[in-house]
Amino acid sequence: MPEQGFVIVGAGLAGAKAAEALRGGGFAGRVTLIGDEPDRPYERPPLSKEFLAGKAERDSVFVHDPGWYAEHDVDLRLGVTATELDRAGKLVRLDGGETVGYDKLLLATGSSPRRLPIPGSDAQGVHYLRRLADSVRLKETLTAGSRLAVIGAGWIGLEVAAAAREAGAEVTVLEVADLPLLNVLGREVATVFADLHRARGVDLRLGVTVDEITTEGGKATGVRLDDGTVVRADAVLVAVGAAPNVGLAQAAGLAVDNGVVVDASLRSSDPDVFAAGDVASALHPLFGEHLRVEHWANALNQPAVAAAVMAGQDATYDELPYFFTDQYDLGMEYHGHVIPGGYDRVVFRGDVEAREFIAFWLLGGRVLAGMNVNVWDVGEQLKALIRAEGPIDADRLADPDAPLEP
């Protein structure tokens, strides 16, 4: 009987953690990890946080030491692109023409930055932040007195703005919505981040539309808005969201809907193909809907479930969505899930002006999500509140002296 083989397409955090979980769980068969980048698997949050800000060395971003893959008999293939998935033959075709057979396959292909369909979007000096090489190039532009224009006031845009300001650069952030992070946090909490960046000297322009990235000699010189205003810049970061890398899955006929559709065990419409991380739209047992979460925690934790099920065990992924950010002296963690407009009340506990507080999003008295800002070691309590059945006393939530419990 031929040796059982598992193939992982995508050598980021999710792919590396899947290989780790397979070996840690005792799987002794062939494990092949395929990645289209030249670097071994690394974590992405530092690319817009510690590494970009010069607070962490390049080697700190990698998931494993260089020798880990050989030591654990993982066939790591870097700089190789998977071009086709043959489900009938259970083969992955690579860009060099080689094929790799599999018994079970994990797609951990991640996501890619959305491009702006405007003139100048591919000019020299226009940056999109996703890969380590992107962060290295962007870091070189963040110097005292340089001018950076950031298009998009989401997490990446704001984290880069913070790193740029701390490096002494002049920063203008351009956002089409009325507030940064409006669709993620809602008006009540988004205001905190608008105030934070303005207090740190960011020129935050909200409710604006970008028409063009201006250029001279093929190099970006600034951004033109629809009212004719031009923002001069030495570099431009486009941070307008990311799209899941579903091309391989879609061409192979897998169910795709804002990501590769998988069940709570991370199994796709093909029982031998799984997905984890940014690319997975997974059924969440608590919320009863498919969620695609583009954050580190999913890439870190989902692979263990996928690996267990691939190896023949029963497992489901029911972790609450989680993300974090560090901007200037503000650190925060967020647990839970709220759709835009899907709550009827926000309750604050602590000092919002001092940026030391917890915010709770409620619907019908139930806690949907909680965010702790410069308040630490409360994650387990927040998760218990979100998982609690029935309404929670909002006055008790707001009382700093009341216990944080359901």
Report on this structure.
The structure is a single chain. This protein is an alpha/beta fold. The chain has three domains: 5-112 and 243-310, FAD/NAD(P)-binding domain (3-Layer(bba) Sandwich); 115-240, FAD/NAD(P)-binding domain, CATH 3.50.50.60; 329-398, Enolase-like, domain 1. Helices cover 23% and strands 31% of the residues. It is built from ten helices and 26 strands. It has helices at residues 13-24, 45-48, 68-71, 132-141, 155-166, 182-199, 247-251, 296-310, 379-387, 394-398; strands at 5-9, 30-34, 74-77, 82-86, 91-94, 99-101, 104-107, 111-113, 126-127, 147-151, 170-175, 203-206, 210-216, 219-225, 230-232, 235-238, 242-244, 260-262, 273-275, 280-284, 289-291, 322-327, 330-336, 345-351, 356-363, 366-373. The strands form seven sheets. It has a five-stranded parallel sheet with strand order 3-2-1-7-19. It has a five-stranded parallel sheet with strand order 9-16-10-11-12, covered by helices on one side. A five-stranded antiparallel sheet has the order 22-23-26-25-24. β11 (170-175), α6 (182-199) and β12 form a beta-alpha-beta unit. It is globular, with a radius of gyration of 22 Å. 41% of the residues are buried.
